UniProtKB/TrEMBL annotation:
Topology in membrane: Multi-pass membrane protein
Top-level lineage group: Bacteria
Range within the parent protein: 196 to 456 of 456
GO terms of molecular function: ATP binding; phosphorelay sensor kinase activity
Enzyme Commission no: 2.7.13.3
Protein name per the record: histidine kinase
Compartment(s) of residence: Cell membrane
Length: 261
């Protein structure tokens, strides 16, 4: 709370001014709270893998004789915790970049279908590892103005999630089509689904339905918030439909004629 409040009762105009000021003050307090929460969350997220690393290395250091196999096992655990820290820091740097006040996007006319083909080819091995079929079912040839690197990042995050949260042998389908003034990239999976009560929160930074599952798949809890921010910067939206145990469908919608003014 910034403790700012103005009250003037004598004149209507002044009252309006006071109201506007109070609304702004409340907003500033909210932003301040969000910033504090974010710093607290970041600290917590970084501390968790660090604590594991500390515990693992200490227990190795304090044992007289350690079997070579146990050594290796502990070092592998330390290695994956370091990967985790790297993932979190990479995602945080992306967010810092997207948060920049004077962020300039590199808008270029792009064949979105070719971009999708490239993304799918890149994620195919990951899907094959889990015996998941990753299919691009419609390939409408569509050109739009986007920052291709950023949109690629957003789409990868969504398809990667579909693969992560779908059990072995499942199916992920990607479809590209136009709907009124929008290009729609639909990513549909038949995975674990998202509980109804969690749906409003999944785009929040660090929110996960199941922390343990997210961690074990290398998740940072930041992927969807990054995707959301990128798509918003293109004046688009991401919608989601999901049913627990049945699967989820994400709709990335980007305006065809982006107003770049
Ligand atoms: P994470 O790194 O944990 O995957 P995200 O921000 O990408 O973080 O997603 C937030 C949470 O939303 C995930 O932890 C997961 O619980 C849920 N989620 C996202 N995509 C899917 C999906 N396709 N199926 C089921 N749950 C999902």
């Amino acid at each position: 709370n910034l403790g700012l409040k103005v009250e003037i009762k004598t004149n209507d105009e002044f009252k309006q001014l006071a109201n506007a000021f109070n609304v702004m003050s409340t907003k500033l307090s909210q932003v301040d709270k969000q910033r504090k929460d974010f710093v607290a969350n970041v600290s917590h997220e970084l501390r968790t893998p660090l604590s594991s690393i500390k515990l693992l290395s200490e227990s190795l250091l304090h044992q007289e004789k350690v079997d070579a196999l146990v050594y290796k096992e502990f070092l592998q655990d330390i290695d994956s915790e370091i990967d985790r820290l790297n993932n979190i820091i990479d995602d945080l740097l992306i967010l810092v970049d997207l948060d920049k006040e004077k962020l300039t996007l590199d808008f270029k006319t792009t064949y979105i279908n070719f971009l999708l083909e490239k993304i799918i080819a890149r994620l195919k091995p990951l899907a094959e590892n889990k015996k998941i079929s990753l299919d691009y079912i419609e390939r409408e040839k569509i050109q739009i103005k986007v920052d291709a690197n950023k949109i690629q990042q957003a789409v990868i995050n969504i398809i990667h999630n579909a693969i992560k949260y779908t059990p072995e042998g499942g199916r992920v389908e990607v479809k590209l089509y136009t709907e009124r003034d929008y290009v729609v990239i639909r990513v549909k999976d038949n995975g674990i689904g998202i509980p109804k009560e969690s749906l409003p929160q999944i785009f929040d930074r660090f929110y996960r339905v199941d922390k343990a599952r997210s961690r074990s798949t290398g998740g940072t809890g930041l992927g969807l918030s990054i995707a959301y921010q990128i798509v918003s910067l293109h004046q688009g939206t991401i919608d989601v439909e999901s049913e627990l145990g049945k699967g989820s469908t994400f709709y990335i919608k980007i305006p065809i004629d982006l107003n770049l003014a």
